[in-house]
Write a structure and sequence with these properties.
- By secondary structure, the chain is α+β, with helices and mostly antiparallel strands.
- The chain has one domain.
- The protein is 18% helix and 38% strand.
- A hairpin with a 2-residue loop joins strand 12 and strand 13.
- The longest helix is centred in the C-terminal third of the chain and has 18 residues.
Length: 267
């Protein structure tokens, strides 16, 4: 992350999810994702990635933040306003966005991660951007994170019809020194203890025409598959008689900010 002009990256890996109770349900599936240096892309664009235009695989600013258009500064302008509103004025370095692309014009991004750095390259904040299947979005702002440390946030947003909006999340972020491998772990605890354990991991490589072809050939319907898998897992939980939770009203504010306790965690 310290190179003068960082390159956009693509990650190839897997998603893991395990529900611990009242009925156990676990799955693993392959995935790919983008890791984008947003300030660099804003200034210089990209030859390999279609930005804000139609393509088999593309990135669009309106899919993030408050949905503002590129002419309004796009998602990066939204991010900077969010940070300033929370008195974070020193995250002027690279902002890396870990997200899913649009595939053949269609997108669903269950969760994206903004890694916000200082001008010196130190990690200053992480914004966890969550979307649900009702078209709603909410963000969790984690201040002064450290790779490999546990960060906590109070759950404020409805994601699954089989989980109440209660308890909290435990986040752990891992990136190796060569920026070649990444792991994100998100665990949800309710009043009875650990409930969900999830992770997304992948090997990172420069985003090129070849890696785009690899993604499209190996996972041609990934975005559609995400929705299909969500509904299939929901059906499995229903068959296992996991209680259904009615959807509550969304949070009044787009962003939640705790001052999470940090605790040593192992990869």
């Amino acid at each position: 992350m310290t190179q003068e002009r960082p390159l956009p990256l693509m990650g190839f890996g897997e998603v893991r999810h395990a529900r611990l109770r009242p009925a156990r349900n676990a799955f693993v599936y392959p995935t790919y994702f983008l890791m984008l240096p947003m300030r660099t892309l804003r200034a210089h664009g990209s030859e390999a990635l279609a930005l804000n235009r139609r393509a088999a695989l593309s990135f669009h600013d309106i899919d993030h933040g408050d949905g503002r258009m590129p002419a309004q500064g796009g998602a990066l302008a939204w991010l900077d306003e969010l940070l300033a509103a929370h008195q974070i004025h020193d995250a002027t370095g690279e902002a890396w966005l870990h997200c899913y692309p649009r595939v053949f014009g269609y997108t669903f991004k269950p969760v994206s991660f903004w890694y916000c750095h200082t001008a010196e390259g130190a990690l200053r904040a992480i914004v966890v951007e969550v979307n649900n299947t009702f078209g709603e979005r909410h963000c969790y702002l984690l201040e002064r994170p450290v790779y490999g440390m546990e960060l906590k946030a109070t759950k404020a947003f409805h994601v699954s019809p089989f989980c109440e909006v209660s308890g909290g999340y435990r986040f752990r972020f891992f990136v190796d020194a060569e920026f070649a491998h990444t792991v994100v772990r998100i665990d949800h605890d309710d009043t009875d203890g650990p409930l969900l354990q999830t992770s997304v991991s992948g090997e990172l490589a420069p985003l090129t025409a070849a890696t785009v072809r690899r993604a499209l050939w190996r996972y041609p319907a990934m975005t559609f598959g995400l929705i299909a898998r969500i509904h299939w897992q929901a059906a499995r939980l229903w068959l296992k008689r996991v209680p259904f939770v009615a959807k509550p009203a969304p949070p009044r504010h787009l962003v939640s900010s705790d001052h999470p306790h940090q605790q040593q965690a192992n990869p």
